Amino acid sequence: MSRRVLITGGAGFIGSHTCLVLLEQGHELVVLDNFDNSSPEALRRVQELAGSTQLTLVEGDVRDASAVDKAFGSGGAVDGVIHFAGLKAVGESVGNPLLYWDVNVNGSRVLAAAMERHGCRTLVFSSTSTAYGEPETFPLREDMPTAPVHPYAQTKVAVEQMLAALCRSGPWRVASLRYFNPVGAHPSGQIGEDPMGIPNNLFPFITQVAAGRREQLRIFGQDYPTPDGTGIRDYLHVMDLAEAHGKALEHLLQQPTPYSLTLNIGTGRGLSVLEVVQGFEAATGLTIPYEVVERRPGDVPRLEACPQTAQIVLGWSARRTLEEMCRDGWAWQQANPSGYRGPT
Ligand SMILES: NC(=O)c1ccc[n+]([C@@H]2O[C@H](COP(=O)([O-])OP(=O)(O)OC[C@H]3O[C@@H](n4cnc5c(N)ncnc54)[C@H](O)[C@@H]3O)[C@@H](O)[C@H]2O)c1
Fold first, then answer.
1. What is the assigned CATH class of domain 4-187+237-266?
2. Does the CB atom of residue 264 touch ligand 1 within 6 A?
């Protein structure tokens, strides 16, 4: 069944891949994005890849109620919202917490208020595995306590709590998806992760080093209590993550209200930074020079999902391998050495 879906932050890394999956499934999309960390070119390519023009773009800020109203008013009734728009750099959030509370929390509040006004109370929210803080038992299950240790994660937990309160107050249906570490790109190499400035995440850093755009990879800390001393994360292919959104939204739309769900979205298999570097070298035949530098504020030693609930509730599990993550991420970087900005 075709749905009309509002996607905030739809031009971003995860948003653009999700837009592609939903367009290919025949849905009609409205994207609200202020291009703070993305480019309209991503949406042009998404439509080209999908062979669909069922995408309306509203350029604006999710904190601006009139922009959100414009997105709701740009066509027929919206069936559900997927809320990606937000800031995600842990270090930046430590230095500028008010910005993170404004964009992530206030932005979500303005969006939820608009949803109330427009009678659309079905929402998939981008939460994070960092909500668990510095856990000591693994794998992480959704019923474990949240204990965020930096402002970025604190803002995401605050939004989860606001949404849970909305579900107690009225006919809302909410899924908070706690993503682990999405990497890779669409296999076409046409869309991918295009961070502004020095990448905060491991994968774009590796691919930019492989491409000669940066001299060497910086590994933040090799003195963590892990087998090789580098941090362990649960990396998943961004296409697997994008597919989880389609399933989560469809699941919500079939539930009676109120309904609230929190799901880990990961593979359940953690990899250290050095294992990822080796995996990338094996998949591409390249060598990645690196230096070990100080730990970053806010980073934790290990995050690894128990992805069983998503499997049981949504029938979703991550299917793609580390090799595919590396191959597809590298194909994107090679075809787009300067991301969406430069000549391809
Ligand atoms: N990438 C990850 O590792 C990861 C992990 C866990 C959670 N998340 C969350 O998932 C969401 C999407 O992440 P991503 O990796 O695609 O990030 P991204 O930066 O690529 O995408 C975010 C999008 O939101 C837009 N945006 C930012 N502020 C906005 C505002 N005020 N109004 C309108 N649009 C705005 C940006 O321009 C961008 O297109 C974020 O909320 C992020 O916190 C990401």
1. alpha beta
2. no
